[in-house]
């Protein structure tokens, strides 16, 4: 079975100078820069999509609009697309930037042991390879690196699904040097793609 990757850029973008999601932005830093999370999420999913296409892996961004599409509609789109690819291994990746005071990377799955945990471990491992000096904010209490939460996109979608929280937009160093940097953004794209490719290779080996 071939893989089919669904990419979910969280929140809305900027339309005619108006940000579509209340909050979900960095402070205005002393250098005059500010991150709008929805713009970052779209840049990362676009980069992941382009890289996967170069690797001949089918994929689709489920929110091509710049408006802030509801979680209900996002999940419905993902579930519908999965029914159109019944002979594929479907995977949803919801991309976000973190906030709340901290640093590093987190990856979430739904509660319990599921096929999503395997994907999360691959992406977490890829993160440590691309950013060896940055913290992986993990929870190994159940034997794997992901954190488990009841996030809507993880609970309401009917395929393997992970949600990535990529550095902290309220941490000035991470925001300005990584989240708003072309080099930093490319590295974030790289560890998502590397983790996906490792997962694809694993499912291929399991089917031999």
Output the keywords.
208 residues; alpha/beta; 6 helices; N-acetylmuramoyl-L-alanine amidase activity; EC 3.5.1.28; two-stranded antiparallel sheet; globular; 8 strands; Aminopeptidase; MurNAc-LAA_cat
What do you see in this structure?
The protein is an alpha/beta fold and 208 residues long. It has a single domain, classed as Aminopeptidase (3-Layer(aba) Sandwich). It is built from 6 helices and 8 strands. The chain has helices spanning 37-54, 71-84, 116-130, 152-155, 172-179, 182-206, and strands spanning 2-9, 14-15, 18-19, 58-61, 88-98, 105-109, 147-148, 160-168. Strands 4-1-5-8-6-7 form a 6-stranded mixed sheet, sandwiched between helices. Strand 2 and strand 3 (18-19) form a beta hairpin. The longest helix is centred in the last third of the chain and has 25 residues, at 182-206. It is globular, with a radius of gyration of 16 Å. The mean pLDDT is 96. Keywords: Hydrolase.
CATH architecture: 3-Layer(aba) Sandwich
| CATH superfamily label | Zn-dependent exopeptidases
CATH topology: Aminopeptidase
* Main pleated sheet: 6 strands, mixed
Strand content: 15-25%
Quick overview:
By secondary structure, this protein is of the alpha/beta class. It has 6 helices and 8 strands, in the order βββαβαββαβαβαα. The chain has a single domain, classed as Zn-dependent exopeptidases (Aminopeptidase).
């Amino acid at each position: 079975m071939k893989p089919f990757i669904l990419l979910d850029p969280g929140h809305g973008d900027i339309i005619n100078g108006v940000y579509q999601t209340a909050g979900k932005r960095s402070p205005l830093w002393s250098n005059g820069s500010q991150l709008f999370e929805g713009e970052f999420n779209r840049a990362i999913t676009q980069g992941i999509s382009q890289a996967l296409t170069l690797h001949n892996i089918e994929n689709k961004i489920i929110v091509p609009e710049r408006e802030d599409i509801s979680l209900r509609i996002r999940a419905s789109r993902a579930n519908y697309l999965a029914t159109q690819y019944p002979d594929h291994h479907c995977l949803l990746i919801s991309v976000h930037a973190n906030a709340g005071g901290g640093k590093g990377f987190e990856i979430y799955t739904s509660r319990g042991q599921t096929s999503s945990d395997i994907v999360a471990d691959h992406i977490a491992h890829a993160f440590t390879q691309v950013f060896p000096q940055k913290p992986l904010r993990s929870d190994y209490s159940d034997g794997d690196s992901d954190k488990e939460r009841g996030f809507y996109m993880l609970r309401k979608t009917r395929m393997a699904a992970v949600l990535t929280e990529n550095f902290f937009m309220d941490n000035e160093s991470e925001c300005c040097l990584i989240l708003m940097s072309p080099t930093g953004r490319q590295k974030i794209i790289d560890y998502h793609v590397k983790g996906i490719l490792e997962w694809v290779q694993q499912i291929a080996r399991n089917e031999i």
